[in-house]
Each structure stands twice: as structure tokens, then as C-alpha cells.
Write the C-alpha cells for this entry.
Amino acid sequence: MILRSLECRFLTIALCDAAEPWQLGSQDAATPMMQGIIDLHHDIFFFLILILVFVSRMLVRALWHFNEQTNPIPQRIVHGTTIEIIRTIFPSVILLFIAIPSFALLYSMDGVLVDPAITIKAIGHQWYRTYEYSDYNSSDEQSLTFDSYTIPEDDPELGQSRLLEVDNRVVVPAKTHLRMIVTPADVPHSWAVPSSGVKCDAVPGRSNLTSISVQREGVYYGQCSEICGTNHAFTPIVVEAVTLKDYADWVSNQLILQTN
Amino acid sequence: MAEIEIKTAPADFRFPTTNQTRHCFTRYIEYHRCVNAKGEATADCEKFAKYYRSLCPAEWVEKWNEQRENGTFAGPL
């Protein structure tokens, strides 16, 4: 288990694209969005460590010096204008250093007005997902549609992850701008794939948009991230990123299969 | 092997938010207004049809189609 986690960290071939036992860090980024999120986390963590050290020192020092033996008569400090000004301005500056990259990332993630190449609809159900590829229809009834159920806990093949695999994967082309339309058929769900940095709520009566641009081919795992009932934990998401040519072949084959 | 065109509904400046419900609804209405104005025979409206099919869940379209047939559709056709 520990060795496998180490493999995730050091082998360049085996990237961490699925949840691991005892995992502490993020999964490896597959999109610029997730890379930005990870970088922001590191930036904020730097300030967080500084603040932790500073506050810990003040706390320990206060506890140490508030001692009957070494300081029998405590000081009676009531007010200090200089220290007040310093401790108002300084935290504001720190917040500024945190807020600027945070806002920059937040607005760059909002890729709503970029024309996408492909639209995929993820429709949440209790407790599975339906995916629709409707760019290739010539009528309302010809959608490339399939359901995506979890593979039961006692039914995985060798090498498959427990509670993360599905019977039909979402296939997307790599290095292409995708539009994900997320909506539920019953109760609220959330379509989340950590490697892609995507978490999009499925709100009944509403279709929400999120953008993905997967940069490397591979298989990425996610899970429902909005409590949706008894089997909320058994509603995984698997996204497979392939080359554009393979994607076109897959779509063609699927359309042929659905025609028959 | 069927030819697949990698093309979908474009982004619309009228709907810049995450919520794309009205984008879907508006594309659907645009298509049916176009059909009402130009007739079924023309291919001019096919563009709008592709747009709403890409954006709208099939379940919604089915429901709206049924409402249109019953004359209870709420949109301004």
C-alpha cells in the first residue's frame, strides 16, 4: 500500500489519476485547470506555514512568560496604537497576496464563452449516470446515449479499483475543448473528476456548464460529490481520454451499434 | 465508416454563466420559430436544431415536444 503510493509519486509512467488509500495530496493534474488549482494550493500553503509558525511562537511565548515564578506581576497593557495599526495592515497584505492569484484562477476557470468542439451531457440518476453525445444527431431520437453503472463491490476484475469502476466509460478526445452539461433526472448530484479539476453540481430543473480540456490521454476517476441517497458512494465516474482519431472511431462505432 | 464532424453549439454571449438552462430553452424556441416562419422544407433551421440537441437533455426535449403537440408549451413560439 505504501509502496504503491510511492509509485504514484515517483514513477513517471504511473500517474495518480484515481483515489488512493491514505492519500494526502491531490491527484495528478490532467487539465490546466487542475494544475492551476494545485499551484494555488501550494501558494496558499506557503503563507499558511508562515502564519502557523508566527502564531505558534506567539502562543508558546505567551504561555511561557505567563508564569508566577518568573513574572509574579503581569503587565497591565491596555492599548497600543502602533501595534494595532501593524496588526490591521499586515494581515490585509497577506490576504491580498492570497486573493490575487485566487481570483485570477477563479475567473480563468470560467471558460463559458470559449467555443467548444464537443458537448457531452452528464445526467445524474439514483444511482447511475446517463451520458448523451448529441452533436451527431439528425433528429431528436438519435442521441448516442448510454448508462454508466458502478461495477459491484464483489465483481471487479484483476486490477480494477474497488467502487471506482463503471461498465461504460465517458470517452473524450484529449487536447480538445469540451463542454460538459450536467443535469440530474431526480435529486441533486455533483459530477466531479479530481484529475480534471472539475466539480459541477447537478441541480434539478437546471443544466449547469463546465469546461474541460484534457491534456494527456488516460483514464480518470471521480465520484458523485453531492449526497444523493443511500448509494451515493456507489456512483462513480470514469473518463477515458483518447486521441481525436480514436474518439471519432469510437463515436462511429457507437452510432452503428445504436442503429442496429 | 460514417464521417463524424467534430462540431457543436457555440458559446452564446447572452448566457455567460454556469447555468445554461435558458440557453437550451432559447435555442429550442429559436428553432421552432424558424420552422414556423420558413416551413419544415428549408434547411435554414437545421442549424438551430443542432444547437438545441447539443445543449438540451433528451428528456427535456421529449417533454417539450409533447407539450407543443398538446398546445400547452409555455414558451413564446
Q: What stands out?
A: Residues 176 and 213 of chain A are 6 Å apart (CA to CA).
